[in-house]
Amino acid sequence: MTLPDDHTYGARVTVRDVLFDAERRLTIAGVPSPSVDAAEIVAHAMGTTRSRLFLQEAPTEEEKVRIEQLLARRLSRVPLQHLLGTAAFRYLEVEVGPGVFIPRPETELLAEAGIRSLVERPEGERVAVDLCSGSGILALALATEAPGSIVHAVELDDDAVTWTRRNVEAHAAQLADCGSRVEVHHADAGAVAEGELARLTGRVDVIVSNPPYIPDQMIPREPEVRDHEPAVALYGGPDGLDVVHRIARTAAVLLRPGGLLAVEHADVQGSAAGEAGVPGALEACIADAALSSRSGVPVGECAYDDVVDRTDLNGLPRLTLARKRAAEAGSSGAGSARS
User: Which string of b and e fits 260-284 if b means at least 16 CB within 10 Å?
Assistant: First the structure.
């Protein structure tokens, strides 16, 4: 039996029927992951979760209206996370909406790299910085999975930093339980070492960043990204590396010798891209007199050792790791401390 090709529920009153209709329409519209999106929309409208959806009674008329409203917005390619109001990431969930970048699953690899390095430091002496923090999810992941940490979340955009603060406040109890805290700074990630975080010069163990890295002329094809993500979180100048170059200098000042810098990038910005890639950008961070005086890196030397690129779960270049140049033999570098 073939169901009629219409956009009304009619006699279809069970959860399964509503899901079938929603998934069919999302598929026809070319929406990615139509099955998952349909289930999330129906569950959200019915005040439950995907895992408990089939335990629910048939949707009420009010719930059907709510499902239809949410479905119509998703069919117009409003991101699913904007409809739900939240985004999941590792063991956490943060609030998202217009004005802040939606966390992606591949960024979990960036968080993992930062956490692994941070937990090598003694608990209570762990200091990290999240540059271009957005929703604050990286800062929160580091702080909650590396107990006894202080993480500084830096975000420049006025709209985005509102979400950063909101999510940090929402996780206050969880942060307290693990003896960590997240401090939010409304500041420029490329200049923060000259301002309010200058007190951390040479004392930071880990810096993570998911900066804007799309070249200005490369407009994303996905309408969810192109039409709904904030431009300030997407575009990084003519080659996409403007912010990366500035972050490299900031990190060279803030990191202790041997401290980790981890930067996410596009799949075309890995080692094979040479100077047009993020590994190349970090290898090109050569200390001039001004940077040398702040970082301790000798003039004419690269600020970073051990620059390596990592792939994501699809085997695509996604993440560059680098260590702040080790202190010269006999020199005294500042150690990591709580601040």
Answer: bbbbbbbeebbeebeeebbbbbbbe
